[in-house]
Design brief:
The structure is a single chain. This protein folds into 4 domains: 101 residues, Immunoglobulin-like (Sandwich), CATH 2.60.40.10; 101 residues, Immunoglobulins (Immunoglobulin-like, Sandwich), CATH 2.60.40; 72 residues, no CATH class; 197 residues, 3-Layer(aba) Sandwich (Rossmann fold), CATH 3.40.50.410. 13% of the residues lie in helices and 39% in strands. It is built from 7 helices and 33 strands. The strands form 8 sheets. The protein has a 6-stranded mixed β-sheet, sandwiched between helices. Helix 2 runs parallel beside helix 7 and helix 4 runs parallel beside helix 5. The two termini are 42 Å apart.
């Protein structure tokens, strides 16, 4: 779990914000006080190649009537920014000003930082200047990584593919690819190295694995480029078919596990403040419905929850929530479905969210962003939903985002259409609400009411991907049933190129009821006949 001090600063995100610093009318012109004015309020250095950059001068001025004391002027952010405060005058008389300089040097694709100014201004004793910079550099993204071939009988060959994509802004040079370890073999028939990948270009590398014994196999694929040099770990297990048992419990009314994902990009700061101020409405709605609830907030790439789980026994629920929505961010900060997938996958014993996904609970994922869903290609929303529903079949996805097809604008704030989020809500029966509707109290009340609806799962993904269909037996509360079908979607059928786990789907008039135990017995199919 991520640890944060239980302290909330209104309008200040943990990583980025669009906070404005301006004169504040106290309503009493006779009060003498210092008044801090900073220029610029935000600064985008623009695009630079690696090792290149620019500098900007930040002016700090006292437009008040008493002396302004500057307690601290510090820099927060990554190593691409350097602060020079050597000429700082820490005591400013009325109408006096001083300056600091910030130098930017491009080192990665995206840079975010901030100059934090602590002063004696009673209306703004902590002020922030937001900094952005962008690198014109190549960046290599490889998936799947690690790569698991699963199980196969000795002397059977399993085929697969690794994808290498340039997600940067400059040409990527791929120098070499080396296989470490026997029995794994990349296919370079149609690939000649070295080669170049332009931005957004993807290379497909076929792989195969052929075990010769009933043991576990490990290998490594080493990739050398002018960007990252990743190593893909490969695994596989020589084995005969085995018998498996998967068990699930349908949820019961009023018991719900709720997860909030909140986009941490700059443009979301006002929404986070407005939403946090109305969280009490959300809790009151849950308690009016007599719900057995718990709530967690996730923002970081790993999906681990911020602060603590919130339930009926939590003290200062609104303060905990306010701090939690201002959490860490990363490369997936505008990929809410990917972060949600990671959160659900870590809701297992020993995982960072092990308290989540209680037995017989409906799961409600609430995703909030002013951008479309931006998971990378291998995390197409249908793929991510498949992974989420495999772990938690009784899941609603609700979203607060820009309405389709054109997004929205309200109060000077804009939101792009929430493509990806909208489709996820429709696929799971959740709510889709406009982020531009200003009444967050009403939105949160609606989300709370929707979250407490019991959702009886209609289908259940199987834990083993290689399944012998004729071996499947399904039991509900100990009695074998036959009103179901087996589905196994081919990787190419939906256009994503990703393998989904097979599933058992109940007929619409035979869906097991609340609290029912579902037991699925089957054998794996891992021989050469597939």
């Amino acid at each position: 779990m991520h640890a944060f001090p239980l302290l909330f600063i209104a309008g200040l995100g943990a990583d980025c914000s669009d906070q404005k610093i301006h004169k504040i009318d106290t309503g009493d012109d006779t009060d003498a006080a210092p008044l801090l004015v900073v220029d610029p309020l935000t600064f985008d250095f623009g695009d630079f190649r690696a090792g290149e950059g620019d500098s900007v001068e930040v002016t700090i001025r006292n437009e008040g009537t008493l002396t302004l004391d500057l307690y601290n002027v510090t820099l927060e952010g990554d190593a691409g920014f350097v602060l020079d405060a050597s000429g700082l005058d820490r005591e400013l008389s009325p109408d006096e000003e001083t300056t600091v300089a910030v130098t930017f040097t491009a080192q990665s694709l995206e840079h975010e930082g901030r100059v934090v100014i602590e002063s004696s201004d009673p209306a703004a004793n902590r002020s922030v200047v937001e900094l952005l910079g962008h690198g014109l550099i190549p960046a290599l993204y490889v998936w799947p990584s690690p790569y698991d071939f699963g199980k196969a009988e000795p002397d059977c060959t399993r085929d697969g593919e690794i994808y290498l994509k340039n997600i940067g802004r400059e040409t990527l040079e791929l120098y070499s690819i080396a296989q470490i370890g026997d029995y794994f073999e990349p296919d370079f028939t149609d690939i000649t190295l070295p080669l170049s990948l332009e931005p957004d270009e993807t290379l497909t590398l076929p792989l195969s694995w052929t075990p010769d014994d009933y043991v576990e196999y490990e290998g490594e694929l080493w990739i050398d480029s002018n960007a990252q040099d990743p190593v893909v770990n490969e695994t596989g297990q020589g084995a005969d078919g085995e018998d498996y048992v998967d068990e699930y419990v349908q949820p019961i009314s009023g018991k719900v596990d709720i997860m909030f994902y909140v986009d941490q990009s700059c443009s979301m700061d006002d929404d986070k403040v407005a939403m946090s101020s109305k969280f009490t409405d959300f809790i009151e709605e849950l308690e009016d419905l007599e719900a057995d609830y718990q709530v967690m907030v996730v923002t970081a790439d790993d999906g681990c929850h911020n602060l603590q789980m919130i339930d009926s026994d939590t003290a200062n629920k609104d303060e905990v929530f306010q701090q939690a929505v201002n959490g860490n961010s990363g490369m997936f900060t505008e990929a809410g479905l990917t972060i949600s997938k990671h959160a659900v996958e870590r809701s297992v014993p020993g995982g960072c969210n092990s308290e989540f996904l209680r037995e017989s609970s409906t799961v409600s994922l609430v995703l909030i962003s002013d951008e479309p869903e931006q998971s990378p290609p291998e995390h197409h929303y249908t793929v991510v939903l498949g992974a989420i529903l495999a772990a938690a079949p009784s899941t609603y996805v609700s979203a607060v985002a820009g309405p389709l097809p054109e997004g929205c604008e309200s109060g000077g704030q804009t939101a792009d259409a929430g493509y990806g989020y909208y489709e996820a809500t429709q696929a799971t029966g959740g709510l889709f609400l406009s982020i531009c509707d200003l009444d967050w109290g009403e939105k949160l009340s609606k989300l709370a009411e929707a979250a407490t609806r019991v959702k009886l799962a209609e289908f259940f993904y199987l834990a083993e991907e290689e399944v012998e269909p004729n071996s499947i037996h399904v039991y509900v509360d100990g009695e074998e049933v036959f009103d179901w079908t087996y589905e196994d979607i081919d990787a190419e059928e939906d256009g994503t190129g990703t393998n989904y786990p097979p599933l058992v789907r109940f007929d619409s008039d035979a869906i097991p009821g609340e609290g029912a135990n579902i037991r699925i017995e089957y054998a794996s199919a891992v021989d050469c006949e597939q």
